[in-house]
Design brief:
With 252 residues, the chain is α/β, with parallel strands linked by helices. The chain contains 8 helices and 7 strands, in the order E-H-E-H-E-H-E-H-E-H-E-H-H-E-H. Helices cover 41% and strands 15% of the residues. Strands 3-2-1-4-5-6-7 form a 7-stranded parallel sheet, sandwiched between helices. The chain binds nicotinamide-adenine-dinucleotide.
Length: 252
Amino acid sequence: MTKTAIVTGGAGDIGKAIARGLREIDWDVALVDVAETVHETAADLGARAFCCDITDRTARAEVVATVSSPGALVNCAGIVRLTPVPDVSEAEWRQTMETNLYAPFFLSQEVARSMTDGGAIVNIASVSGLRAGFGRMSYGVSKAALIHMTKQFALELAPRGITCNAIAPGPVEGDMARAHPPDQVADYLKTIPQARYAKAKEIADAVVFLCTPAAGHISGQCIAVDGGWTAAGVGVAAAQNQTWPPPDLATR
Ligand SMILES: NC(=O)c1ccc[n+]([C@@H]2O[C@H](COP(=O)([O-])OP(=O)(O)OC[C@H]3O[C@@H](n4cnc5c(N)ncnc54)[C@H](O)[C@@H]3O)[C@@H](O)[C@H]2O)c1
């Protein structure tokens, strides 16, 4: 039987790639996004579109009422504001939490009720929820909480055959990463062992895997898709510049 996934943030770079990946394995997809372009994206992919704000309770209820018994929910919609601590406003704090944390919570709660035959919830977190980054107070806290929320859902939904996992992308090519100031781009390229940003498809591939039965025993995990960034400590530049095999190895 064809399964259906709800993907929020479906008009954005990563959400679109996730929807494409799920369509490629013949899932039906319902794209949810506040941007009008969600209609065009959905038409391109042969998906359904819901143009609405996920922070709006009535809008969420309408999505859940329309998509019957979904097999997956991907909480991908998110916003980022890069603001140093002294300048973080109450409005920024509240809007970031509403979008990145509260809406995924309530949507997961509502969708889990309507998952009648098991399912998968995948939360798109961020490496900013694992490590601190300059200007990422509201964003990083929202994503760290989302990672913990993932574990709570994994625990309580396990008896119903529903998995819940998070993906923590490092920087990804696209609109959101275009907001990175040049010094931070340089910093990332120096500290990511693979010395590059991810492609949206690389995030999508991990999400699609987590939605399939092959990932059925994985739950409560946060998988960083970050080119090795969170794994690395000292010596990234040395590793990036190393010739391999080292020239002297041949003579040993
Ligand atoms: N791009 C990156 O470098 C990066 C890195 C780590 C994590 N992430 C996370 O990945 C997710 C997707 O990011 P992206 O790069 O595709 O960004 P994006 O800006 O291209 O897409 C985000 C989408 O979410 C939608 N959205 C925002 N608020 C919404 C709301 N209230 N209701 C409905 N839709 C809403 C936007 O309209 C947009 O289409 C986000 O949660 C982001 O935090 C991105």
